[in-house]
Design a protein that fits this description.
alpha+beta; 3-stranded mixed sheet; MetI-like; transmembrane; cell membrane; Alpha-glucoside transport system permease protein
Length: 427
């Protein structure tokens, strides 16, 4: 090359080099420098900020969650992408399916976070995840008949522990027993409940009525059966003596019930199963499952990305090898496991490593989806970097140390990816 060509090359590269230095090299260098100073930036503290990364419980939780993200999210996304790419290759509507799976990539992280914040709502009437979960649960498990029902202090019932209630006095034959309750919304009353009525006294039996002691519109008297009050049909009642259940029954549509003479002198108990809260699903955004829930939203977005890249690699495979394996008697699972996956290994490695780099700097989804009381449990390094640098108690020294630590985590993965890509180009 002549000197003139070198000058021309430098002239063309100089603007890009200036931008690269101003936007990449200088911020990295200054972050390394700032990480060696204290909160104010005036005192040199050496590596103390880096030691804080592993001694502070909040930051250590962020590191642990980042490890979970790096292991789980790329693996699941790549596995689903591989499955989708292989399965859709043989169906006529495969292109439409790929379009649907890839479509979430067109949505920003912000919009995806808002969507899944609603999907994971605890209320089944709003959250899709809990609506489906509650439907499955209620199919196999009987729900409580009267959640939140309770007696008033003037009622002849008292708490018995564990959410149950018992009569204040033992019951006697010939003396009707009253079991009034309140707190049952009209919508939760049995549809075939009848107007409550007082039982007929019986000399050889224990009789009584369980009813909702509430008159719509007011005007009723507590502890008395009024004309507009309904029986608590299906309310389970137990006769208990010395801690043992002697007999049990359920209230009729009008609330009446009766026990044999075996219940003489026993207490009547309303077990806690009558009042158990309705099943409202899983607290997806609670401290225990918030990280897996957010990873699920990430997989929803990025499985399509993995599928498209893997499908491109799958299209370039020599079909004669696959057909030869089938002719030799290999079934589809053997062809997939012993031929397709090994030949796609370079593509799978690139996809996985690319997603690993992506999740190391995940921020948007965690910040938007995790509620305030679970944010510390879902914390990741990028979010902690933001909070440490720009929060109410900003510490730019610690924030710079987190940034440098993130860079150190990304560099090996990035170098591996570059080396893999160059090796593939060399072939």
């Amino acid at each position: 090359m002549t000197g003139t060509r070198k000058l021309v090359a430098i002239s063309f590269l100089l603007p890009a080099l200036v931008l690269l230095g101003a936007l990449v090299v200088y911020p990295i260098g200054y972050s390394v420098y700032r990480s060696l100073f204290d909160k104010s930036g005036a005192g040199f503290v050496g590596l103390d900020n880096y030691l804080t990364l592993f001694s502070d419980p909040t930051i250590f939780t962020a590191i642990k969650n980042n490890l979970i993200w790096v292991v789980v999210a790329p693996t699941v996304s790549t596995a689903l992408g591989l499955i989708f790419a292989v399965l859709t290759e043989r169906v006529r509507w495969g292109t439409a399916f790929k379009l649907i799976v890839f479509m979430p990539m067109a949505i920003s992280m912000l919009a995806s976070g808002i969507i899944f914040r609603l999907v994971y709502e605890q209320d089944p009437d709003r959250g899709v995840a809990n609506a489906a979960w509650v439907t499955v649960h209620d199919t196999f498990a009987e729900s409580s008949g009267f959640p939140r029902a309770r007696p008033l202090p003037v009622h002849p019932l008292k708490p018995a522990g564990g959410g149950a209630y018992v009569t204040k006095e033992p019951v006697r034959a010939g003396t009707p027993v009253s079991l009034p309750l309140i707190g049952v919304p009209p919508a939760q009353m049995p549809k075939d409940a009848a107007v409550a009525k007082a039982p007929a006294p019986a000399a050889d039996r224990i009789t009584g009525t369980a009813w909702l002691d509430f008159t719509k519109g007011g005007g009723g008297k507590p502890n008395a059966i009024d004309s507009k009050e309904s029986g608590l049909k299906g309310l389970e009642i137990e006769a208990v003596r010395d801690g043992q259940v002697v007999e049990s029954t359920k209230a009729a549509a009008d609330g009446t019930f009766s026990f044999s003479s075996k219940a003489e002198g026993a207490e009547l108990r309303l077990p806690a199963s009558n009042f158990r809260e309705q099943y409202n699903g899983v607290n997806w955004l609670g401290p225990n499952v918030v990280t897996p829930a957010i990873i699920g939203s990430y997989v929803w977005m990025w499985a399509g990305f993995a599928m498209v890249l893997i499908a491109a690699g799958l299209a370039s495979l020599p079909r004669e090898l696959l057909e030869a394996a089938r002719v030799d008697g290999a079934n589809e699972w053997q062809v997939f496991r012993r031929i397709t996956v090994p030949m796609l290994a370079p593509v799978l490695a690139v996809v996985t490593v690319t997603l690993m780099i992506n999740v190391l700097k995940i921020f948007d989804l965690v910040f938007i989806i995790a509620p305030g009381d679970s944010l510390d449990d879902a914390n990741v390094l990028a979010l902690q970097l933001y909070q440490s640098s720009f929060g109410s108690d900003a510490d730019l020294g610690l924030g710079s140390a987190i940034a440098v630590f993130l860079l150190l985590l990304v560099i090996p993965v990035m170098l591996f990816n570059i080396r893999r890509m160059r090796k593939e180009q060399g072939r």
